[in-house]
Amino acid sequence: MAESSVARPFDLIKLNLDEMVQVKLRGNRELVGKLHAYDQHMNMVLGNVTESVTVIDVDLLNHQATGANVVKRNIEMLFVRGDGVILVSPCAHPHDG
Amino acid sequence: MFFYSVFKTLVGKTVVVELKNDLAIQGTLVSVDQYLNIKLDHVSAVDSARYPHVATLKNSFIRGSVVRYVHLPASAIDTALLQDATRNEPGNR
């Protein structure tokens, strides 16, 4: 019968170990880095990370968004707590997204 | 319990704990527990001008649930070991 080595969502994440991944977090944050470790809570350790925070500027008088600003920074080794993680996706080398 | 074990190997190292309220605290890791609550010694706020209320603190206990990130010293992490341990974790489906 058809048997899959990717049985569950966490198996998909296991495929990304030692690969560059893109992680979307709560608070309009994104991380791109190499996945070194994770657990069932989606706590993770990422290496060579670029964090991108998107800030929306709002014109308060007219209630309009006047622009989006992305603030980036690099962190060599980062533990990420799983309760902030929205999604994990592979990305192609080098820093993507 | 996986990251609990990882953090136990980092006791004594200097880390920066970034909280969900954007406060970033640097300190020496004293202890960690199963909830990833963290105790730090010799704390200082990373941006001390913006967060003066940390200036009087020497030690701190940080509830695990309010942590967003922990910046780790790259030299203290064996990435190959971490990846192998993750693969072999019985908790990983």
TrEMBL record, chain A:
Specify the Sm domain's residue ranges: 8-94
Q: What GO molecular functions are on record for this protein?
A: chromatin binding; poly(U) RNA binding; telomerase RNA binding; U2 snRNA binding
UniProt keyword Disulfide bond, yes or no:
no
Keyword set, alphabetical order: mRNA processing, mRNA splicing, Nucleus, Ribonucleoprotein, RNA-binding, Spliceosome
* Location of this chain's protein in the cell: Nucleus
Primary localisation category: nucleus
Name-wise, this protein is LSM complex subunit LSM3
BP term (GO), one: deadenylation-dependent decapping of nuclear-transcribed mRNA
As for family, the record states:
Belongs to the snRNP Sm proteins family.
Q: Which CDD domains match?
A: LSm3
- The source's superkingdom equals Eukaryota
Reported function = Binds specifically to the 3'-terminal U-tract of U6 snRNA.
What GO CC terms are in its UniProt record?
chromosome, telomeric repeat region; Lsm1-7-Pat1 complex; nucleolus; P-body; sno(s)RNA-containing ribonucleoprotein complex; spliceosomal complex; U4/U6 x U5 tri-snRNP complex; U5 snRNP
Say yes or no: keyword NADP present.
no
User: What are the leading ranks of the lineage?
Assistant: Eukaryota, Fungi, Fungi incertae sedis, Blastocladiomycota, Blastocladiomycetes
Provide the species name. Allomyces macrogynus (strain ATCC 38327) (Allomyces javanicus var. macrogynus)
Kindly state the subunit structure of this protein: LSm subunits form a heteromer with a doughnut shape.
Q: Which InterPro entries match?
A: Lsm3, LSM_dom_sf, Sm, Sm-like_LSM3, Sm_dom_euk/arc
UniProtKB/TrEMBL annotation, chain B:
Q: Name the InterPro entries on file.
A: LSM_dom_sf (IPR010920), Sm (IPR047575), Sm_dom_euk/arc (IPR001163), U6_snRNA_Lsm2 (IPR016654)
**GO CC field:** catalytic step 2 spliceosome; Lsm1-7-Pat1 complex; P-body; precatalytic spliceosome; U4/U6 x U5 tri-snRNP complex; U6 snRNP
GO molecular-function annotation terms? RNA binding
Question: Where is the protein found, in the record's own terms?
Answer: Nucleus
Q: Which SUPFAM superfamilies match?
A: Sm-like ribonucleoproteins
Which GO BP terms, alphabetically?
mRNA splicing, via spliceosome
Could you tell me which SMART domains the record lists for this protein?
A: Sm
What Pfam families has UniProt attached to this entry? LSM
Q: Where does the Sm domain lie? A: 2-76
Q: What is its main location?
A: nucleus
Which key words tag this protein in UniProt?
mRNA processing, mRNA splicing, Nucleus, Ribonucleoprotein, RNA-binding, Spliceosome
Tell me the protein family, please: Belongs to the snRNP Sm proteins family.
Q: What does this protein do?
A: Component of LSm protein complexes, which are involved in RNA processing and may function in a chaperone-like manner.
Q: Which protein is depicted?
A: LSM complex subunit LSm2
